[in-house]
Amino acid sequence: MGRRGQSVTLSVSEQDKVQLEALALEFGMTWGDRPNISKLVEAIAQRQLIIAPNHDWANERINALNRAINALIDLGEMHAATAIAQLLLERSELTIPLRGELEQFLQKPALTSRIEIERYIHRQQPFQLSYQDAAGRVWSFTVRYAAIAIHDDRQYLDCWCEETEGNQDLPELIHNWCFRFDRIIDAAVSPIAGDWRFGLATIPVELHLFRGLAFAYQSKTARDDVNEWLIVEDPTSQKTVTQVRRVVRQVSSTFWLLREVLRYGQDCEIIAPDSVRQRLSQELVSLCKRYNLMGVSEN
Questions:
Q1: DSSP code, position 110
Q2: Residues 6+ apart with CB under 8 A from 173
Q3: What are the 10-residue block averages of pLDDT along the chain, 299 residues in total?
Q4: Contact 119, 87 (CB under 8 A)
Q5: Verdict on whether the full-model pTM lies above 0.70
Q6: Residues 105-114: b if buried by 16+ CB within 10 A, e if exposed
Q7: What's the topology of domain 113-191?
């Protein structure tokens, strides 16, 4: 006679019993065609099944892994980025928008165009690329200069292109474009004949920095033509203010400049040229309209 195993009595509610039977079916622990809770418990005891923590990852962990995916994409490490994306998709804590973004990312082929573009930049070889914008439209560009740049902690491809249609920047800068690597269509990157430019189009912009920002500012040596302290009179109090830093910077995109200036609020002022200052004024008027602040006076 075979040796009978020791029995263990489980005291569980009917609802818990149903859940255990469902798990037994899911992992193939059955007696005939019926779920067998005893076999499920035995498999856990023998570590055939591993008990894992509940799906309780904090938002900080999920956000950190998502930032890691973006950084790896920027570096061209698609295999590592794909592995992390697949790991995240196994979690139930993801928001619906983030899950959709990750699923869309995994459906795309690896960004082999990045390697090819870096070769063209190194050789100073003009090239053509096709780009899909946020609305799903595909554009074709003839690139005469390109460089990998960081904007808002992400890497982009800054380019000087022959095409200007759809560019809403100032007339002096409408040949400059900024592309996300994950929207460049791999199959449509190819070399072309012609001359390579030696930089983006730029315009000088004068900024005044105040208070703590003036002292904390670190010169961006590649772009700053002037970085000096000014003595400025405050017209509201007729007192001399010495803590004003004047910066004159070469700017290739007013879009990224305005994003930076708005971040610092009243501690950063665009002085010149007037075309850039007016762009910021229009942005502020639109913002006030959005929050119903037009005509509201400070008390």
A1: P
A2: 167, 201, 202, 203, 251, 252, 253, 254
A3: 58 81 84 84 80 76 88 77 87 86 75 82 94 90 94 90 95 96 82 94 94 84 81 63 84 95 92 95 92 69
A4: no
A5: no
A6: beeeeebebb
A7: SH3 type barrels. (2.30.30)
